[in-house]
Write a structure and sequence with these properties.
By secondary structure, the chain is mostly beta strands. Strand 14 and strand 15 form a beta hairpin.
């Protein structure tokens, strides 16, 4: 691989990213607001809809709606922004959405004819909405997800970096998740996209660390003394919480086990997961690691429209698996499945340091320094010209605040970094 990465190629890649940005879905989040909901018209008490894993245009929320009262959908927790309103002037006609930016569509809202728990499904691609009575009707459901926020979490007190814990499929009042916590304190929020002003929190019961309370008089929080991964389970119906450290889990892929072919890719099976290597051309190679038990579907990139093409060969010896194109060699160590990239003269251009660590959230990847003098890129996450010795954090959440002093890990960032050594990731 040539050490020089021409500006022509850089500009071409940026152009592809910008073209892809035009195909972004209209919203990266969706919130339910209205006097039919538990939070009424409070922006800080909007109900968070969850995005479908397989279709980024689909959002769902299951919760209580009051009969004959209004609701609509917001793309941000603010007024006069992007909203999704009723396309019909009949509020009980719940079928079509109308896109509104700064009031560009009539403010028609939705209503249901019976108070009950409903599953709301919005498809922003088809601009449709459905509201169907949920199976569970024993008690009102208010929340589909909860968030841990505080100095014990990686994002500390930034709500947009709070740690989500997911709702149990069989019990709508039970939430759980494995999270990485550090010494400090935390409480439980109900909306990571809103502000603190009228946000609903759950606090530690001052008389029992294993119980939760909505009484925030003394802002009682849970204390973490030791940095570790914890299994956190909250039961809103029983007002209980459990915080248990988890046993150490393998973070890296581990030792090589076997390899196979999947179309234009080589799939390496390791003791703790798989590694899929796909050459897109002689210079561009996609590396996709997946931990055992991770069944999340891979999302197609919104900015990459190219299809894998070109030929490659695969060889192996006692220590390594090597995939070669006419310009690039990708070497996978059999000992730990760490990956390195080199040109055909054998000069190493990029090498993983610790590989992808799946053992905690957020997941991390690190690379060894290759005598690089400077690193450039990162989009809005940049904050500086040279990234040498720094970390880029990406939460895949829209947060706003586009100045260089803003610490939020924006989702509008390009995780593309070019080094003076000639490598790029």
């Amino acid at each position: 691989m040539k050490k020089s990465f021409t500006f022509d190629r850089i500009y071409a890649l940026i152009a592809l990213v910008l073209i892809g940005a035009m195909h972004l879905s209209a919203a990266d989040r969706l919130l339910v607001i209205g006097d039919a909901t538990w939070g009424k018209w409070s922006l800080d008490r909007t109900s968070v809809m969850l995005r479908d894993n397989g279709n980024e245009n689909i959002f769902r929320y299951t919760g209580w709606l009051e009969a004959d009262k209004e609701f609509k959908f917001l793309a941000q927790a603010q007024w006069d922004g992007i909203e999704y309103r009723n396309a019909s002037d009949n509020p009980y006609d719940i079928s079509r959405l109308a896109y509104s930016d700064k009031g560009s569509a009539p403010d028609y809202k939705f209503k249901v004819g019976e108070s009950a728990n409903y599953t709301i499904t919005c498809d922003l691609g088809a601009m449709t909405v459905s509201v169907v009575k949920a199976d569970y009707q024993q008690a009102p459901i208010l929340h589909d997800v909860l968030y841990l926020v505080g100095s014990a979490t990686p994002g500390e007190w930034a709500l947009w970096q709070s740690l989500p814990i997911e709702q149990d499929a069989s019990n709508p009042f039970r939430f759980s998740g494995t999270v990485s916590l550090k010494p400090g304190t935390f409480k439980i929020a109900t909306n990571c996209y809103a502000d603190y002003n009228e946000q609903k929190f759950f606090f530690r019961d001052p008389s029992d660390n294993g119980r939760i309370s909505e009484d925030g008089t003394d802002d009682c929080q849970w204390t973490i003394d030791t940095a570790s991964d914890y299994n956190v389970t909250v039961d809103l119906s029983a007002s209980t919480i459990s915080i248990e450290p988890v046993s150490e889990q393998p973070g890296t892929l581990g030792a090589y086990r076997s390899r196979s072919y999947d179309g234009n890719s080589v799939v390496i099976t390791a003791e703790n997961g798989t590694l899929t290597i796909t050459p897109y051309n002689d210079y561009v190679v996609k590396v996709f690691p997946r931990a055992n038990g991770d069944n999340t579907p891979e999302r197609r990139s919104i900015s990459v429209y190219a299809a894998p093409e070109g030929s490659f060969s695969v060889s192996e010896d006692d220590d390594n698996i090597v995939l070669r194109t006419s310009a690039t060699a990708v070497t996978v160590s059999k000992a730990d499945c760490r990956v390195s990239f080199s040109d055909m003269a054998g000069h190493t251009v990029l090498r993983e340091k610790n590989g992808l660590d799946n053992s905690r959230s957020p997941r991390t990847a690190s690379f060894e320094g290759m005598n690089d003098e400077a690193f450039y890129g990162g989009g809005y996450n940049g904050k500086r010209i040279n990234h040498n010795g720094t970390s880029l954090v990406m939460n895949n959440r829209q947060t706003g605040g586009w100045d260089c002093d803003w610490d939020a890990p924006h989702n509008i960032c390009i995780p593309f970094v070019v080094s003076t050594h000639g490598s790029f990731i």
